[in-house]
Amino acid sequence: MRIASYKIDDHNQALMAAHQRTFEYLSGEIDHVQDIIQQLVAFQVGIPSWALGTGGTRFGRFPGGGEPRSLEEKIEDVGLLHQLNQSSGAISLHIPWDMADNPAQIKAVAAQNGLRFDAVNSNTFQDQPGQTHSYKFGSLQHVDKAVRQQAIDHNIEVVRQGIAVGSNSLTVWLSDGSCFPGQLNFRQAFQRTLEGLREIYAALPDNWKMFVEYKAAEPNFYSTTVGDWGQSYLFSSKLGPKAYSLVDLGHHLPNANIEQIVALLLMEGKLGGFHFNDSKYGDDDLTVGSIKPYQLFLIFNELVEGMDARGMNHATDLGWMIDASHNVKDPLEDLLQSVEAIMISYAQALLVDRKKLLAAQQQNDVVTAQEVLQQAFRTDVRALVAAARLQAGGALNPLALYRTEKVREALILERGAKTMATGL
Ligand code: AOS
Ligand code: ZN
Ligand code: ZN
């Protein structure tokens, strides 16, 4: 379904006077407002295909109805989000959950919805029906060459499918590791994994990137073969210039200083992209910005500083993707909230007075340095983000319009109340 454009116009007209008031006040406080708005308009976040259905835990899943039943419907859902916020212009596919058997048609549906394809994800953490070898004891790290070969072949097939739809990056997240001390020879597991990644890397087209995603624990609870940014960095630097680390915010040990990790990976030219989400305890995959918004801002602060120092394009030089889904919200509302949180943090990071911060750092003026950061973080930039949306043709308040248009109800009518999106 699509929302008629006059409905977006009517919605915007109804909110315009209030928006203008806050926007005018805010623009009086900020330098280069128009430049910032242009940067916000250009910034697009990739939506994971697996977050369009209701998430679950190993204890249960409570699907909400109207979930997409096919890849085309997943693309249409992301198209809806993009129509509302104009900041969700990409979808990230997960193979084999999203088999694109008919790439030409899939590409056409994406184009109709104004979307491009972000990184494609491989899956060697589940056994699929009819699969020859099991991944119970890992995939690329496995002691049996035949299992490793199956995982390599799968990743190469994912690249093939990605090429067919016009993606240009592969995210490899391995659940490989061990559950108990003694189970695994760490060094050999690393070397076997590297060997497999090298074969996959060799199959990448020249303009492709490989993102090596790391994760501290789960499903393996003693060791993970790509367990932290150090291991991911080792793999990506040994692989070559097309390989990068991918930072999923929920994949660190508690209280890890993620912004420092981001700064150093960026410095080394080895930061490839993000899986945004939020967490209280572990890989909770909660709505972005719902638990630790200051951390998210500090990460964006390092990103803006580091990307500018390297002359990078904020919008295009890293993969910006969400990896969040939960079991008690309408997935589309959850994603609207996540994208909004990302845009807010990015806008706040653009407001940081860099000269003043640098001077404070040079003078060891700790108080001023903190004030500079918190001045930006405590600025309510929602009107700025809304102004960018308005300029791009989106809705001033996407969530409100989603509700008044009864989008979920319409999707339930169209697709049924008992639908189950493919994915976890
Ligand atoms: C798993 O924890 C990772 O975040 C991966 O990115 C994974 O492929 C994705 O979450 C889908 O399960
Ligand atoms: Zn992830
Ligand atoms: Zn995860």
UniProtKB/TrEMBL annotation:
One of the record's GO molecular function terms: isomerase activity
InterPro entries, per database record: L-rhamnose_isomerase, Xyl_isomerase-like_sf
Superkingdom of origin organism: Bacteria
Keyword tags: Isomerase, Manganese, Metal-binding
Keyword field contains Hydrolase: no
PANTHER family: L-RHAMNOSE ISOMERASE (PTHR30268)
Protein name listed in UniProt: Sugar isomerase
